[in-house]
Amino acid sequence: METLVQRDALARFGHALSDGTRTQILLSLRSGPGYPAELADQAGVSRQLLSNHLACLRGCGLVVAVPEGRRSRYELADARIGRALDDLLGLVLAVDPACCPDAERDECC
């Protein structure tokens, strides 16, 4: 039987993955730490928008900011997060494209 803590942790992980930009950030950080400017470029978003997403990911406990002088680098909070993302990417899913036509607008079936 799952605990409330486990359920909340999975819900936070799901919330993080429910947004394409946050998913891109997590996928980028799988290969190693990144800096906000680089992550913004990779995700194709402004630095302000990236900052908001990083705050969300920190709040979810998925990434940490490591101060480096006047800058901060971001990395996954735990290496197991990267492995979990690898496992999710490795799944072979048969998805009916008509099932969730509005997934980007959070109106998925």
Automatic annotation (TrEMBL):
InterPro entries: ArsR-like_HTH, HTH_ArsR_DNA-bd_dom, HTH_Metal-responsive_Reg, WH-like_DNA-bd_sf, WH_DNA-bd_sf
PROSITE patterns for the chain: HTH_ARSR_2
CDD domains: HTH_ARSR
Domain HTH arsR-type, residue spans: 1-96
Domain of life according to the entry: Bacteria
Pfam families per the UniProt record, alphabetical: HTH_5
Protein's UniProt name: ArsR/SmtB family transcription factor
Organism: Rhodococcus gannanensis
Upper lineage: Bacteria, Bacillati, Actinomycetota, Actinomycetes, Mycobacteriales
